[in-house]
Amino acid sequence: MVRALSSVPVVVAAAVCLSACGGSPRRRHAPVEVPAKAKAAVRIARSYLPEEERKRPIPKDCSDFVGSVYKEDGVALPRSSKAMAEKGILVASSKELRMGDLVFFSGSRGGSEVGHVGIYVNNGIFIHQANPGEGVRMESLYSDYYRKRYLKGRRIVE
Question: Which of 22, 38, 78, 142 is deepest in the core (most CB within 10 A)?
Answer without folding.
Answer: 38
